[in-house]
Specification:
Blueprint lengths: L2 E3 L4 H10 L15 H6 L2 E9 L8 H18 L4 E3 L3 H9 L3 E8 L8 H9 L2 E5 L33 H13 L2 E3 L5 H10 L5 E2 L16 H9 L3 E4 L19 H15 L4 E3 L18 H10 L4 H19 L1
Parallel strand pairs: 1-2, 2-4, 3-4, 4-5, 5-6, 7-8, 8-9
Helix pairs in contact: 1-3, 5-6, 9-10
Length: 329
């Protein structure tokens, strides 16, 4: 089965390895994602996030740019096997040439330092989707998970703080550029700010259902319905903490069956057409039944057992995301 995946942190894992003096080959490595695993898994498209940790003590823009540069090196190393996506037509062209498509995204809009000029530069460099926040509040918006806050389980959502004035300017400019706004990690108030002011469909690239796993990183049923009404898309996250409802986060599991349960809830609330994959591979830990991106047959089987038709499973695996990108890039 073909596959699209809306989010992974492989670029930051590769950059970290380089910084530690142990560079990894993108073709074959021990990460969740490499080129051989993508090809074995039948991937048509993988979104690669330039992930930035505002609390990491480094310049956030430099961190993003270094990962964008690394993305370019990866693309140049295997041009006959993987190629970037800048416009909707690139997906079909790459597929016809037998290449995996790679879309560059950013996880942490704070890397722009509030500059619309930097945002436009990132677009010119190939970025086609961006979260407004990660786990820190920034000059654009409030985050739902606070890295500097108390270790609460499950984390309480932030329902009071949303987009800033600068954040609304970024929302408008991203829509003008056709850079997809990604609401994963955004506060509850920020989510509703996007709903109230956006004019184009947006994405939650790697978020699950709060009704099944009560983590604030997940979407409420009201959010799911709002997204479905606006033609948005949500990627199923494989992180144990966003799938399971155990009282102890260390006991949370990531299984194909639990992912399929979240997919079934998305379908019940918002319809099967809004569901995609958003693995969060190379950014998550814990015990994963799907240990890397080549293990998608486990999820295909679990979705069938959950009552999804073959047509609906194809939609979740790739068709829904492909239609979303073709309409919105």
């Amino acid at each position: 089965m073909k596959a699209f995946d809306l989010h992974c942190d492989t670029l930051s894992a590769l950059r970290r390895a380089e910084g530690e003096g142990r560079p990894l080959s993108f073709v074959h490595n021990d990460l969740h994602i490499d080129l051989e695993k993508l090809e074995a898994g039948g991937y048509m498209l993988q979104c690669f996030a330039a992930f930035v940790d505002l609390g990491g003590g480094e310049d956030p823009l430099a961190a993003a740019l270094e990962q964008i540069e690394l993305f370019g090196r990866v693309m140049e190393a295997c041009p006959d096997r993987i190629a970037p996506v800048y416009a909707a037509g690139d997906i079909a062209r790459n597929a016809a040439a037998g290449r995996v498509s790679a879309m560059l995204t950013v996880e942490e809009g704070g890397c722009c330092k509030g500059s619309l000029g930097v945002l436009r530069l990132l677009y010119r460099l190939g970025v086609r989707m961006m979260t407004l926040t990660w786990n820190y509040d920034n000059c654009l918006a409030a985050s739902n998970v606070k890295e500097e806050g108390p270790a609460l389980w499950p984390c309480p959502p932030d329902t009071e703080h949303g987009l800033t004035e600068r954040g609304f300017a970024f929302l408008a400019e991203m829509e003008r550029l056709h850079m997809i706004v990604d609401v994963s990690h955004l506060s509850d108030k920020g989510f509703w700010d996007v709903v109230g002011h956006s004019t184009r469909p947006f994405a939650a690239s790697h978020s699950n259902c709060r009704a099944l796993a009560p983590h604030c990183r997940n979407l409420t049923d009201e959010m799911i319905r709002a997204m479905a009404e606006r033609g948005c898309i949500a990627g199923l996250n494989y992180c144990p903490a966003f799938l399971d409802d155990q009282s102890d986060p260390a006991a949370c599991r990531s299984t194909a069956g639990l992912i399929a349960r979240h997919a079934a809830h998305f379908k019940q609330v918002g319809g099967a057409g809004m569901i995609a994959l958003g693995s969060d591979f190379d950014g998550i830990g814990g015990q994963l039944e799907m240990t890397d991106c080549s293990k998608l047959p486990l999820l295909e089987r679990a979705l069938g057992q959950e009552g999804f038709t073959d047509d609906e499973i194809e939609g979740i695996f790739w068709r829904n995301a492909r239609a979303f990108f073709e309409e919105n890039l």
